[in-house]
Protein backbone atom coordinates (compact mmCIF):
# COMPACT_ATOMS: atom_id res chain seq x y z
CA UNK A 1 0.00 0.00 0.00
CA UNK A 2 1.30 3.47 -0.85
CA UNK A 3 2.85 5.41 2.06
CA UNK A 4 0.23 8.21 2.09
CA UNK A 5 -2.61 5.72 2.35
CA UNK A 6 -0.89 3.92 5.18
CA UNK A 7 -0.29 7.21 7.01
CA UNK A 8 -3.97 8.09 6.67
CA UNK A 9 -5.07 4.62 7.79
CA UNK A 10 -2.80 5.02 10.83
CA UNK A 11 -4.54 8.31 11.60
CA UNK A 12 -8.07 6.90 12.06
CA UNK A 13 -7.80 5.42 15.56
CA UNK A 14 -5.10 7.88 16.61
CA UNK A 15 -7.27 10.80 15.51
CA UNK A 16 -10.30 9.42 17.34
CA UNK A 17 -8.21 8.91 20.47
CA UNK A 18 -6.88 12.48 20.31
CA UNK A 19 -10.38 13.94 20.01
CA UNK A 20 -11.64 11.66 22.77
CA UNK A 21 -8.83 12.55 25.20
CA UNK A 22 -9.18 16.24 24.35
CA UNK A 23 -12.92 16.14 25.07
CA UNK A 24 -12.82 13.99 28.21
CA UNK A 25 -12.13 16.86 30.65
CA UNK A 26 -15.14 18.85 29.41
CA UNK A 27 -17.86 16.18 29.07
CA UNK A 28 -21.17 17.55 30.38
CA UNK A 29 -19.28 20.54 31.86
CA UNK A 30 -19.92 24.22 31.02
CA UNK A 31 -19.18 24.79 27.35
CA UNK A 32 -15.82 26.26 26.30
CA UNK A 33 -15.99 29.48 24.33
CA UNK A 34 -13.98 30.55 21.30
CA UNK A 35 -11.13 32.06 23.30
CA UNK A 36 -10.68 28.96 25.48
CA UNK A 37 -8.45 26.13 24.24
CA UNK A 38 -9.16 22.61 25.48
CA UNK A 39 -6.21 20.60 26.79
CA UNK A 40 -5.74 16.87 27.53
CA UNK A 41 -5.80 17.41 31.28
CA UNK A 42 -7.83 14.34 32.20
CA UNK A 43 -10.62 14.27 34.77
CA UNK A 44 -14.13 13.93 33.36
CA UNK A 45 -16.37 10.96 34.09
CA UNK A 46 -13.60 8.38 34.63
CA UNK A 47 -11.92 10.24 36.18
CA UNK A 48 -9.22 9.93 33.53
CA UNK A 49 -5.49 10.59 33.57
CA UNK A 50 -4.14 13.39 31.33
CA UNK A 51 -4.16 12.12 27.73
CA UNK A 52 -6.31 9.09 28.51
CA UNK A 53 -9.14 8.32 26.09
CA UNK A 54 -12.53 6.95 27.13
CA UNK A 55 -15.20 4.43 26.07
CA UNK A 56 -15.43 5.79 22.52
CA UNK A 57 -11.89 4.80 21.56
CA UNK A 58 -11.93 1.75 23.84
CA UNK A 59 -14.83 0.35 21.81
CA UNK A 60 -13.27 1.39 18.50
CA UNK A 61 -10.19 -0.59 19.55
CA UNK A 62 -12.43 -3.63 20.22
CA UNK A 63 -13.69 -3.45 16.64
CA UNK A 64 -10.28 -2.76 15.15
CA UNK A 65 -8.70 -5.72 16.90
CA UNK A 66 -11.45 -8.06 15.70
CA UNK A 67 -10.83 -6.87 12.13
CA UNK A 68 -7.04 -6.86 12.37
CA UNK A 69 -6.89 -10.38 13.80
CA UNK A 70 -9.25 -11.96 11.26
CA UNK A 71 -7.70 -15.06 9.73
CA UNK A 72 -7.41 -15.08 5.97
CA UNK A 73 -7.60 -18.85 5.91
CA UNK A 74 -9.43 -20.19 8.96
CA UNK A 75 -8.91 -23.71 7.66
CA UNK A 76 -12.12 -24.90 6.19
CA UNK A 77 -15.53 -24.66 7.72
CA UNK A 78 -17.12 -21.33 8.52
CA UNK A 79 -17.40 -20.73 12.23
CA UNK A 80 -19.20 -18.31 14.47
CA UNK A 81 -22.44 -16.41 14.03
CA UNK A 82 -24.36 -16.59 10.80
CA UNK A 83 -25.51 -13.03 11.43
CA UNK A 84 -22.71 -11.49 9.38
CA UNK A 85 -24.14 -12.83 6.17
CA UNK A 86 -22.00 -11.96 3.18
CA UNK A 87 -20.79 -8.71 4.76
CA UNK A 88 -18.42 -9.82 7.49
CA UNK A 89 -17.59 -13.38 8.44
CA UNK A 90 -19.33 -14.82 11.49
CA UNK A 91 -16.05 -15.22 13.28
CA UNK A 92 -15.11 -11.55 12.76
CA UNK A 93 -18.48 -10.36 14.01
CA UNK A 94 -18.30 -12.73 16.98
CA UNK A 95 -14.83 -11.43 17.80
CA UNK A 96 -16.11 -7.85 17.83
CA UNK A 97 -19.01 -8.82 20.11
CA UNK A 98 -16.72 -10.84 22.36
CA UNK A 99 -14.28 -7.93 22.57
CA UNK A 100 -17.17 -5.64 23.59
CA UNK A 101 -18.07 -8.00 26.44
CA UNK A 102 -14.46 -8.33 27.59
CA UNK A 103 -14.25 -4.55 27.58
CA UNK A 104 -17.56 -4.27 29.46
CA UNK A 105 -16.31 -6.36 32.36
CA UNK A 106 -12.58 -5.59 32.30
CA UNK A 107 -12.02 -2.21 30.72
CA UNK A 108 -15.07 0.04 30.58
CA UNK A 109 -14.20 3.20 32.50
CA UNK A 110 -17.58 4.64 31.53
CA UNK A 111 -20.44 3.37 29.38
CA UNK A 112 -23.58 4.73 27.73
CA UNK A 113 -27.03 3.56 28.80
CA UNK A 114 -27.91 1.83 25.53
CA UNK A 115 -24.61 -0.04 25.31
CA UNK A 116 -24.83 -1.04 28.98
CA UNK A 117 -28.32 -2.50 28.53
CA UNK A 118 -27.51 -4.44 25.35
CA UNK A 119 -24.19 -5.82 26.54
CA UNK A 120 -25.84 -6.82 29.82
CA UNK A 121 -28.52 -8.74 27.94
CA UNK A 122 -25.95 -10.44 25.70
CA UNK A 123 -23.51 -11.27 28.51
CA UNK A 124 -24.78 -14.87 29.03
CA UNK A 125 -23.59 -15.67 25.48
CA UNK A 126 -20.03 -14.57 26.29
CA UNK A 127 -17.47 -17.10 25.14
CA UNK A 128 -19.90 -19.01 22.91
CA UNK A 129 -20.11 -19.13 19.13
CA UNK A 130 -23.09 -17.01 18.21
CA UNK A 131 -22.37 -14.23 20.71
CA UNK A 132 -22.86 -11.64 17.94
CA UNK A 133 -26.31 -13.04 17.16
CA UNK A 134 -27.24 -12.75 20.83
CA UNK A 135 -26.06 -9.12 20.86
CA UNK A 136 -27.91 -8.24 17.65
CA UNK A 137 -31.06 -9.85 19.05
CA UNK A 138 -30.76 -7.96 22.34
CA UNK A 139 -30.38 -4.66 20.53
CA UNK A 140 -33.36 -5.41 18.29
CA UNK A 141 -35.56 -6.48 21.15
CA UNK A 142 -34.83 -3.22 22.94
CA UNK A 143 -35.62 -1.15 19.86
CA UNK A 144 -38.77 -3.15 19.06
CA UNK A 145 -40.03 -2.60 22.59
CA UNK A 146 -39.97 1.14 21.98
CA UNK A 147 -36.83 2.14 23.89
CA UNK A 148 -35.11 5.00 22.01
CA UNK A 149 -32.01 3.48 20.38
CA UNK A 150 -30.60 6.36 18.36
CA UNK A 151 -27.89 7.58 20.71
CA UNK A 152 -24.40 8.40 19.45
CA UNK A 153 -22.86 5.20 20.88
CA UNK A 154 -22.37 3.29 17.64
CA UNK A 155 -21.22 6.31 15.61
CA UNK A 156 -18.55 7.12 18.20
CA UNK A 157 -16.74 3.80 17.56
CA UNK A 158 -17.35 3.28 13.84
CA UNK A 159 -14.11 4.68 12.37
CA UNK A 160 -12.17 1.41 11.95
CA UNK A 161 -15.02 -0.07 9.88
CA UNK A 162 -14.16 2.52 7.23
CA UNK A 163 -10.80 0.77 6.80
CA UNK A 164 -12.20 -2.67 5.90
CA UNK A 165 -12.79 -2.31 2.18
CA UNK A 166 -10.80 0.72 1.09
CA UNK A 167 -11.67 0.45 -2.59
CA UNK A 168 -15.31 -0.47 -2.24
CA UNK A 169 -18.09 1.78 -0.89
CA UNK A 170 -20.96 -0.73 -0.87
CA UNK A 171 -19.44 -3.39 1.40
CA UNK A 172 -18.11 -0.60 3.61
CA UNK A 173 -21.68 0.64 4.04
CA UNK A 174 -23.00 -2.85 4.67
CA UNK A 175 -20.36 -3.48 7.34
CA UNK A 176 -21.09 -0.09 8.94
CA UNK A 177 -24.78 -1.01 9.30
CA UNK A 178 -24.05 -4.42 10.73
CA UNK A 179 -21.52 -3.28 13.33
CA UNK A 180 -23.80 -0.42 14.38
CA UNK A 181 -26.69 -2.88 14.87
CA UNK A 182 -24.69 -4.86 17.43
CA UNK A 183 -25.89 -2.33 20.00
CA UNK A 184 -28.07 0.28 18.24
CA UNK A 185 -30.98 -1.07 16.18
CA UNK A 186 -32.50 2.28 15.19
CA UNK A 187 -31.97 2.85 11.43
CA UNK A 188 -30.83 6.43 12.17
CA UNK A 189 -27.73 5.07 13.92
CA UNK A 190 -26.99 2.77 10.98
CA UNK A 191 -27.41 5.61 8.49
CA UNK A 192 -25.07 7.87 10.43
CA UNK A 193 -22.45 5.10 10.53
CA UNK A 194 -22.79 4.58 6.76
CA UNK A 195 -22.08 8.27 6.10
CA UNK A 196 -19.14 8.40 8.49
CA UNK A 197 -17.54 5.16 7.33
CA UNK A 198 -17.78 6.26 3.73
CA UNK A 199 -16.19 9.53 4.85
CA UNK A 200 -13.32 7.64 6.48
CA UNK A 201 -12.94 5.19 3.58
CA UNK A 202 -12.80 7.95 0.99
CA UNK A 203 -10.45 10.09 3.10
CA UNK A 204 -7.96 7.23 3.47
CA UNK A 205 -8.28 6.02 -0.12
CA UNK A 206 -8.39 9.38 -1.91
CA UNK A 207 -7.40 12.09 0.57
CA UNK A 208 -10.48 14.31 0.80
CA UNK A 209 -13.60 14.99 2.84
CA UNK A 210 -16.09 14.37 -0.01
CA UNK A 211 -17.00 10.89 1.19
CA UNK A 212 -19.49 11.98 3.84
CA UNK A 213 -21.69 13.72 1.29
CA UNK A 214 -21.14 10.97 -1.28
CA UNK A 215 -22.25 8.49 1.36
CA UNK A 216 -25.80 9.84 1.08
CA UNK A 217 -26.13 7.84 -2.15
CA UNK A 218 -25.46 4.65 -0.17
CA UNK A 219 -28.60 5.22 1.93
CA UNK A 220 -32.13 4.10 1.03
CA UNK A 221 -33.63 6.42 -1.60
CA UNK A 222 -36.27 7.74 0.79
CA UNK A 223 -33.63 8.76 3.37
CA UNK A 224 -31.31 10.73 1.12
CA UNK A 225 -33.06 14.11 1.24
CA UNK A 226 -33.23 13.94 5.03
CA UNK A 227 -29.51 13.39 5.43
CA UNK A 228 -28.47 15.82 2.69
CA UNK A 229 -30.42 18.50 4.56
CA UNK A 230 -28.82 17.58 7.90
CA UNK A 231 -25.32 17.82 6.37
CA UNK A 232 -26.16 21.18 4.77
CA UNK A 233 -27.34 22.49 8.16
CA UNK A 234 -24.06 21.39 9.73
CA UNK A 235 -22.00 23.19 7.07
CA UNK A 236 -23.84 26.43 7.82
CA UNK A 237 -23.64 26.59 11.62
CA UNK A 238 -21.01 26.22 14.37
CA UNK A 239 -20.72 22.91 16.29
CA UNK A 240 -22.49 24.29 19.35
CA UNK A 241 -25.64 24.77 17.24
CA UNK A 242 -26.04 20.98 17.47
CA UNK A 243 -26.18 20.76 21.25
CA UNK A 244 -27.41 18.58 22.94
CA UNK A 245 -25.54 15.97 20.92
CA UNK A 246 -26.26 12.65 22.61
CA UNK A 247 -28.61 11.94 19.67
CA UNK A 248 -26.75 10.33 16.78
CA UNK A 249 -27.98 12.90 14.26
CA UNK A 250 -26.86 15.98 16.22
CA UNK A 251 -23.60 14.24 17.19
CA UNK A 252 -22.82 13.70 13.51
CA UNK A 253 -23.84 17.26 12.69
CA UNK A 254 -21.65 18.71 15.46
CA UNK A 255 -18.65 16.70 14.24
CA UNK A 256 -19.28 17.55 10.57
CA UNK A 257 -19.70 21.21 11.47
CA UNK A 258 -16.39 21.19 13.38
CA UNK A 259 -14.66 19.79 10.30
CA UNK A 260 -16.32 21.85 7.58
CA UNK A 261 -16.53 25.24 9.32
CA UNK A 262 -12.89 25.16 10.47
CA UNK A 263 -10.33 26.58 8.03
CA UNK A 264 -6.81 25.42 7.32
CA UNK A 265 -5.36 22.09 6.28
CA UNK A 266 -2.99 19.39 7.50
CA UNK A 267 -1.88 19.58 11.12
CA UNK A 268 -3.40 23.04 11.53
CA UNK A 269 -6.86 21.81 10.51
CA UNK A 270 -6.51 18.59 12.50
CA UNK A 271 -5.93 20.50 15.75
CA UNK A 272 -8.38 23.35 15.15
CA UNK A 273 -11.21 21.04 14.06
CA UNK A 274 -10.86 18.93 17.21
CA UNK A 275 -10.72 22.01 19.43
CA UNK A 276 -13.89 23.28 17.77
CA UNK A 277 -15.53 19.87 18.21
CA UNK A 278 -14.87 20.08 21.96
CA UNK A 279 -16.36 23.59 21.98
CA UNK A 280 -19.65 22.01 20.86
CA UNK A 281 -20.11 21.23 24.55
CA UNK A 282 -22.26 18.46 26.07
CA UNK A 283 -20.88 15.03 24.98
CA UNK A 284 -17.56 16.61 24.08
CA UNK A 285 -15.36 13.51 24.00
CA UNK A 286 -17.76 11.68 21.70
CA UNK A 287 -18.22 14.55 19.24
CA UNK A 288 -14.45 15.05 19.12
CA UNK A 289 -13.80 11.29 18.81
CA UNK A 290 -16.19 11.13 15.85
CA UNK A 291 -14.52 14.15 14.25
CA UNK A 292 -11.09 12.78 15.11
CA UNK A 293 -11.55 9.55 13.18
CA UNK A 294 -12.32 11.53 10.04
CA UNK A 295 -9.70 14.29 10.34
CA UNK A 296 -7.17 11.59 11.24
CA UNK A 297 -8.19 9.67 8.12
CA UNK A 298 -7.89 12.79 5.99
CA UNK A 299 -4.60 14.26 7.25
CA UNK A 300 -2.91 11.11 8.51
CA UNK A 301 -1.03 10.19 11.66
CA UNK A 302 1.79 12.49 10.55
CA UNK A 303 -0.50 15.49 11.18
CA UNK A 304 -0.88 14.70 14.89
CA UNK A 305 1.19 17.12 17.00
CA UNK A 306 3.97 15.62 19.10
CA UNK A 307 2.49 16.87 22.36
CA UNK A 308 -0.70 14.89 21.70
CA UNK A 309 1.14 11.83 20.35
CA UNK A 310 3.19 11.49 23.50
CA UNK A 311 0.21 11.93 25.81
CA UNK A 312 -2.66 9.94 24.29
CA UNK A 313 -3.25 6.43 25.67
CA UNK A 314 -5.91 4.12 27.09
CA UNK A 315 -7.42 0.67 27.50
CA UNK A 316 -6.23 -1.98 26.73
CA UNK A 317 -2.77 -0.50 27.23
CA UNK A 318 -2.50 1.28 23.88
CA UNK A 319 -0.34 4.31 23.12
CA UNK A 320 -0.13 6.36 19.93
CA UNK A 321 2.12 3.91 18.08
CA UNK A 322 -0.21 0.99 18.91
CA UNK A 323 -3.24 2.89 17.62
CA UNK A 324 -1.38 3.60 14.38
CA UNK A 325 -0.40 -0.07 14.03
CA UNK A 326 -4.00 -1.16 14.52
CA UNK A 327 -5.26 1.17 11.81
CA UNK A 328 -2.61 0.00 9.34
CA UNK A 329 -3.34 -3.66 10.17
CA UNK A 330 -7.05 -3.29 9.41
CA UNK A 331 -6.30 -1.44 6.18
CA UNK A 332 -3.93 -4.21 5.06
CA UNK A 333 -6.45 -7.00 5.65
CA UNK A 334 -7.51 -8.64 2.40
CA UNK A 335 -11.26 -8.58 1.86
CA UNK A 336 -11.22 -12.38 1.84
CA UNK A 337 -10.17 -12.39 5.51
CA UNK A 338 -13.09 -10.18 6.53
CA UNK A 339 -15.96 -11.40 4.37
CA UNK A 340 -18.42 -14.14 5.18
MG1 LIG B 1 -16.54 8.76 26.20
UniProtKB/TrEMBL annotation:
Top-level taxonomic group: Bacteria
Gene3D superfamilies in the record: ADP-ribosylation/Crystallin J1
Keywords: Hydrolase, Magnesium, Metal-binding
Cofactor remark: Binds 2 magnesium ions per subunit.
Coiled-coil spans in chain: none
Residues that, per the record, bind Mg(2+): 54-56, 283, 285-286
InterPro entries per record: ADP-ribosylglycohydrolase (IPR050792), Ribosyl_crysJ1 (IPR005502), Ribosyl_crysJ1_sf (IPR036705)
A GO molecular-function descriptor: metal ion binding
Cofactors, names only: Mg(2+)
Pfam families assigned to the protein according to its UniProt record, in alphabetical order: ADP_ribosyl_GH
Recorded family membership: Belongs to the ADP-ribosylglycohydrolase family.
PANTHER family referenced in this protein's UniProt entry, alphabetically: ADP-RIBOSYLGLYCOHYDROLASE, ADP-RIBOSYLHYDROLASE ARH3
Name used for this protein in its record: Crystallin
Species for this entry: Streptomonospora alba
Lineage: Bacteria, Bacillati, Actinomycetota, Actinomycetes, Streptosporangiales
